[in-house]
Amino acid sequence: MTTFDYGPIEFYTIGFDGDRPGPAVLQAIDDLVASGTVNLLDLIFATRDANGDLTIAEITDTTDDAGVPALDLAGLASEEDIEALADAVPAGASAAILVVELLWAKSFAATLYDAGGFVVSRQGIPAPLVNAYLSEHLD
């Protein structure tokens, strides 16, 4: 059986009003990493001021309150990736750009590969839309 070093990865641009996400969002990302659901490969913060000027801060590593390294990020997003993803950030808002490895899909990807299978298409639906639809249609 094939063993992949990495599972599939996804890029997310998560927008926020104002200049940064709150600590609860960072904690939620940390919880996903700690649970083994994802491996955080890159984390970038982008802020667009009221004039439309963009500031980008790429996080290469992080430390906890005691100064101990908490994450050692691979920096997988290219400059072109970051610019394209940050382009959607509106004036007066910010975004966290995440590159995550889907650890839950790693074994499945290897099995699919061994079987000669491949992903033809993928479509994501944001959670608010899923919940709104299901709340109207499931009762």
Automatic annotation (TrEMBL):
InterPro entries: DUF6325
Superkingdom as given in the UniProt entry: Bacteria
Pfam family, one: DUF6325
Protein name: DUF6325 family protein
Lineage of the organism: Bacteria, Bacillati, Actinomycetota, Actinomycetes, Micrococcales
